[in-house]
Amino acid sequence: MNVFILSHRQLRIIALAVFMLITTIPHSYAEASLYIITNQNSDISELSSNEVRQIYMGGTLSRKLNAISLPVDSSIRKNFNVSIIGLTENRIQSYWAQLFFTGRSSRPKELKTVNEVVDYISSEVNVVAYVPANVELPSNVVVLFQR
Amino acid sequence: MKHRLCSIYGSIIALSTGMMYSKIALADDRVQVSGFTRIVAGYLNTDDAEFRGYKDDIQFSPNSLLGLQVNAQANEHISLTAQGILRADSDKDSGLEWFYATLQPEDNLSFKVGKLRTPFFMHSDVLDVGYAYHWISPPPQMYNAFLFPTFEGVNATYGHFGEHYDVSFEAYLGQHSGDIDLNNTRTQYDVEVLGGFITEVKRENLTFRASIHQGDVDVSLPQLESLAAALKNYSMFNKTVDALSSQSQIDVMQFGVRYDNLNYFTAAEWVKIKPNQKTFLPEIDTYYLTGGYVFDPVTVHVTYAKSKLRYSDFPSEVSDTLTNLPTSSPLYPGLSQAAYGLSTIENSRSSDSLNSWTIGARWDVKPRLALKADITFLHGNDGETAMFESIKDGFDRESQLYQVAMEWVF
């Protein structure tokens, strides 16, 4: 009878490979760190990760704080979707179609570049946006959350 | 039908051109024009029956449609929304599905007044926007039950959030008249009062939704009314006369849960529809379980759905009286005709219990454009209608429905 037995060494290699696979999946997404920013005169001083998610997914908090997004093909947007929303762009779009066509909420406003986003935040209150953590921020823009 | 489809495609082209201009003309963001369209082709692999408009010949009309939505923001607190649908199926109503004003006096409180979609189940108010869900057709056992898709009235939504959760409470009240498919017949109905209460809790990627709804419906069924009027003259069959009443209170209970992440999703929904008049409206228990895996941009999914329908029989007082009556009695001919009428009504009721498995794939070609393919394996019980129509003798209530679709929102 042919019995398939793995040696201890082979088992260790397999265990190590599985471990590396599991631990590297989340890291491969988390390339850059993000700031969630707002104007210093907004009615808010900090946000949790879940509150940021609520704002971008049309939750109750999105009525108080308007969300700003970057274009769909932006790598910063992809990073934000993966690390904070936890859904693919396609799933988010599908969810937004549901909210929008049932009159529950409107999609986040889209601006073309990070500079435009920072300028907009600098001039409007009660609006939040995500930007890469290496961006230089004007003095009237504050960070509410970072990842 | 072909003419209607052509007009849909024509409208899409006209609209796409129009949209380019509207984006410029309406650059002040106060008026927004958006829309959605779905082109669905389906084929049923039997010639012994039809299912929801599909047969053994490729059909486009049952689910293809074009929807347009216009939002106008009057000021910070008030906006107007109109959504019109043009359906390829001329038997289904085209026209304004939503037409309402939204008032938002506070950040966490909003009111909608006007013509609204009835928010019975998780996908009820977004059924026409196929892009918003993974199937081509949500489980028909639940989403094609005999309920009233729209109402005229008011809806109030209150939201409350914490660091880790977001809750919304929604209540609505209204009325509606229209027609529905009841026992495979287009039937007029009038809902004098319709109301409901919905709670939705979101925590990270997990959503729970629980709701109750109630409506007082008056269904126009002439055969019931004439039989009740005839039996009333005997003054001895009050229970049967009551059981022939075309008025019924209908209670609906729903519970749903959904979990989504980057790699997979899973959802389940359970519904009970309970009319207090169950001689011609069925009590329905239905649920589905669904799950899918995301190989972005492709999602593959599988769904099991089941429904169980129950009716009440008419009281036996008419047939009991008839059994003890000599055939020479002057009452005999009339009562015997009434008994026949009652059994005809019982036999003409649709017995739509159905089990189904659906496997499908959705390919998100680009944001706001998706292609889908679904196969649904339908299993009904012998001798029942099982949601099939035009059933031929010998049909075993087993069939597969193949569907492909293009979903687009703009």
Structure description:
The complex is a heterodimer of chains A (147) and B (410). Chain A has helices at 8-29, 49-56, 75-85, 89-101, 114-123; strands spanning 34-39, 66-69, 109-110, 127-132, 141-146. Chain A is 44% helix and 16% strand. Chain A has 5 helices and 5 strands; from the N terminus they run αβαβααβαββ. The radius of gyration of chain A is 20 Å and the shape is globular. By secondary structure, chain A is an alpha/beta fold. Chain A has one domain (32-146): D-Maltodextrin-Binding Protein, domain 2, CATH 3.40.190.10. The longest helix of chain B has 24 residues, at 2-25. With 410 residues, chain B is of the alpha+beta class. The radius of gyration of chain B is 24 Å and the shape is globular. Chain B has a single domain, classed as Porin, CATH 2.40.160.10. Chain B contains 6 helices and 18 strands. Chains A and B meet through helix 2 and helix 4 of A and strand 1, strand 3, strand 5, strand 6 and strand 7 of B.
